[in-house]
Amino acid sequence: MATLLYSLGRAAFRRRGLFLAGWLLLIALVGGGMATFGSHLDSEATIPGSQSQKGIDILEKALPSSTGVTAQIVFRAPEGSTVNDPAYRSAIERTVAAAGKAPQVETAVDPFEAKSVSADRRTALAQVLYPIKRDALRDSSVEALEHIAFQARSSGLRAEVGGTIYSSAGLEVGIGEVIGLVVAVVVLIITFGSLLAAGLPLLTAVIGLVAGLLGLLLVSNIATVSSTAPSLALMVGLAVGIDYALLILSRHRTQLASGMDAEESAARATGTAGSAVVFAGLTVIVALSGLTVVGIPFLSVMGLAAAGTVLMAVLVAITLLPALLGFAGTRLRPRPGSRADRRERETGSGRRWNGGARWARLVTRRPLVTVVAVVIGLGVMAVPAAQLSLAMPDNGTAAPESTQRKAYDMISDAFGPGRNGRLLVLVQTADADPKAAATEVAKGIGDLRLPEVLSISAPQAGTDGRTAIVTVVPKAGPRAEETVRLVRDIRAATPDLGTAADAEVLVTGSTAAAIDVSDLLSDSLVPFAAIVVGLALLLLLLVFRSIVVPVKAAVGFLLSVGAAFGAVVAVFQWGWLADQLGVPTTGPVFSFMPIVLMAVLFGLAMDYEVFLVSRMREEYVHTGRHGQSVIAGSRHASRVVTAAALIMFAVFASFVTAEDLTLKPIALGLAVGIVVDAFVVRMTLVPAVLALVGNGAWWLPRWLDRLLPNLDMEGTKLDPPRQEAERRPVRALS
């Protein structure tokens, strides 16, 4: 591996113009494709095999209006007035009539005819139906409906628009992300002491990210790409793109400071640090691709999209960065006598102990104490995770100032929270009258006397002569545990209800679908973790040729993810620091959060494992001294791991400022997880564990050693042959 990447790095350095032109041509091609075809992001989330999805598929043919996009226009009269007052009623009727003629609208239902007026007569709710899916709804149609609805405000009414016409925020970049980039630049300047050196990782990361995101958006024209996929791809791709370039550039600068030729240094940095980047990136890609095992297309696309940007980050780091190093030439060599020059020389030669080496000596002085303290501390941080509660997002999680959130709150206040999360009970018969069968099912549900039910509607017949639906309005909101229990109670009774009515009965609708997603994700966590961790352990076994190192890496990851989950629960469910972090409401977090966070954090945790332990392994292979290799590896890698972790933290923390609560908890969990994993697990627990096991850290059964290919990530084949007499005896860590 090192030899191959060494040759690639040398070729990129020598033919730098060709490599740069190739990347610019790639961006031009995908950019031109985007300009020609645009993008087609899909906010639809399907759950193959679930009861709710089966019901939705049936209703799409039998009663399309029940599964199409809906909007809600909520009107509220001023204090002391009612919506029945002539002036207000006239304004509402004019608005509803205009809404019925709005672009792409099928019909608008008058709230007075539908009896959708609150008990205090101050609030009226009009339904607007679109006979299309959300991805077919144009933004201009939503804006047109909002304009019509807001005109009612001129009469003194309060008017807001909600419903399924609104989806997640998708790809939005705001001031928070800009601040994250600024922090990354500051960290890079401090790390390298040079504007040129600091700019290269950022430049390569942006080029890789642009190519990856444009490619993803272009692919959305021929494949289903979820609207949240670009957000995750942006967050992960930016973080790893900077970090991978940082690792290679740091090795290059150290070698330049020691007097190495620029071309040879670029090739060697690509061969050694580039090997670590390839395998680190591969673990991230494996972890993100593992999201496909869940069986939810929406989630699979998110994982594959983010994996694609990580792949681009790796390719940029090992091809474009060496080319840019060729353009920079010796200008990246620290100025003789400068602070950066002294720091790089000391790091390369090991003549002095830097902060990383001193910390490693401290935590390995009494390694058992360190291990126990870390495990107990992270265990305490993980305690809140036991109360993790999951649900799908809805308009109740939108930004408080948005019209959909205001409409959601107005409906909850006037009609009860359950009006925002109605359940559809589908009744399908073979020969019998579906409306009569649905009436019998509705009566059966009423006879169950479920305390969570607020009301049960009269049946509505479909167009196929075999289908009807009954609408059940819960007392609690769509994300409440009471509503989850209600869905399960009705489903438990559907076999008997179906037998009595001689029909098939399914509980479906968006609320039931959200519950099915949460259940499927919960059931998938263990197999997902087993597959992803198993594949990553195999990769680490190949890289480090050790049994202890992969197992230790996995255990450390579990500690990090437990602490990250604990932080998410404390903020988003318990409300700790909620105001400071801009969390408008507490409650269950996004159902996809645990599995997405696990995938991303595992991949990034393995990045640090590879960055740090590869330097320890490299020292051990070259010197045969285990104790010194732990200290030396920490000395060499501490600065780059610290910088990488701070950059990733800044990038992820910047996304905590996003308004959409689907991304906020993932960003917070990743920010906390990165800090814990880098500084507590990798730079503290790892040296302590390696010190405890001694030379056994690099033990591998002989039969397994013969079976595994030698990937030579340490770059031993790049060095002149070493005589055994030059090796000193292995010494235990003092």
UniProtKB/TrEMBL annotation:
What sections of the protein cross the membrane?
178-197, 202-223, 229-249, 270-298, 304-329, 368-386, 525-544, 556-577, 589-608, 640-658, 670-693
Q: Does the keyword DNA-binding apply?
A: no
Query: What's the family?
Result: Belongs to the resistance-nodulation-cell division (RND) (TC 2.A.6) family. MmpL subfamily.
- Keyword Transmembrane carried by entry: yes
Under which name does UniProt file this protein?
Answer: Membrane protein
Family annotation (SUPFAM superfamilies): Multidrug efflux transporter AcrB transmembrane domain
**Main location as per UniProt:** membrane
Q: Which residues form a coiled coil?
A: none
Q: Which UniProt keywords apply?
A: Cell membrane, Membrane, Transmembrane, Transmembrane helix
Q: Taking every annotated instance into account, which residue ranges of this chain make up the domain SSD?
A: 195-327
Topology within the bilayer: Multi-pass membrane protein
Q: Record's InterPro entries?
A: MMPL_dom (IPR004869), Mycobact_MmpL (IPR050545), SSD (IPR000731)
Q: Which Gene3D superfamilies does the UniProt entry name for this protein?
A: Multidrug efflux transporter AcrB transmembrane domain
Q: Which PANTHER family match?
A: MEMBRANE PROTEIN MJ1562-RELATED, MEMBRANE PROTEIN SCO6666-RELATED
Q: Where in the cell is it found?
A: Cell membrane
